[in-house]
What we know:
The structure is a single chain. The chain is 36% helix and 25% strand. It has 9 helices and 12 strands. It has helices spanning 3-19, 24-32, 46-60, 84-102, 122-131, 211-215, 238-246, 269-276, 288-304, and strands spanning 22-23, 64-67, 74-77, 133-139, 149-161, 164-173, 186-189, 193-202, 230-236, 254-257, 260-265, 282-286. The protein has a 5-stranded antiparallel sheet with strand order 7-6-5-4-8, with helices on one face. Strands 10-11-9-12 form a 4-stranded antiparallel sheet. A hairpin with a 2-residue loop joins strand 10 and strand 11. Helix 1 packs across helix 4 (84-102). It is globular, with a radius of gyration of 23 Å.
Amino acid sequence: MAATQYNKYIWLVDTIRSAGKITKAEIDRRWMHSSLNEYHESRIPDRTFYRCLNEIEMLFDIEILCERSPYGGQYYIAESDSNSKTKQWLLSQFAMSQSLDTSRELQDQILYEPIPAGTEYLTTIVEAMREKQKLHVAHLRFDSTEAPHEFLLAPLCLKVFKQRWYVLGFVEEIDNLHNTPKDEPRIYALDRVQFVKRTDKSFKQPKKFNPRAYFSGYYGVFCGKQYTPEIIRARVVPIAAKFLRSLPLHHSQKEIEPCVFEWFVAPTLDFIQQLRTYGSELEILHPQSLREQFKAELEQQLALYQ
């Protein structure tokens, strides 16, 4: 499935969601003015429309129903608690994209951060997760000067972090040149992927694997058995405390006293880098090893300016 088809599905979901209830005629009218309507169709053919509804339910677990009336049917999104966070994120992201697209005269007045490459593989990965099919992946690391690493991947979940998409899954080597543990999932950034292809090889989803539980002790995408969650405590200045209260760094975040925050999270590179962004506004209190690490880094930075 092409990425443009994926975008059309999200367009249809967002159009119905934003309207609450909407007729097929009104959907067709809006489709005429959509930038995704590359063939300038005057309407969405009924057969195509119903196929889209089925695909949307299978891909996103979003059920679109029709309320019949003497004056014609109105389409709406059925209420459901399943996967609600994913749905809300998906729709909010596309709603912003649609607002930018339909307000082209304001595009120079709306500034946003670009998303790196890799989104074109999302549909292929989602379908492979649904069908429990392994993927043939070619991935090139930033620090690699060699050819891309090719392997089979059993995709378990997708994750977004700092505007990058990542896929987590179990790896099966093709060339046997890489010593990749088979009992632990690996995570890969999609913007470093050279290609992704579905295979005819199936896999079984681990019964006890829960993506949210797996990432609960981590911040970002550095994860695995080599990282152990622990208590990290820091004091910040009052203005920084307001930012942390409004947007916690991690679900475990607690303010144990005014301007003193505590997290139960693995001290991975991405979490430490996030703490570094507060600069002199943050003081590490615990653990002592992390406090000493920050102190040594500050002394090295100071030496650069002397």
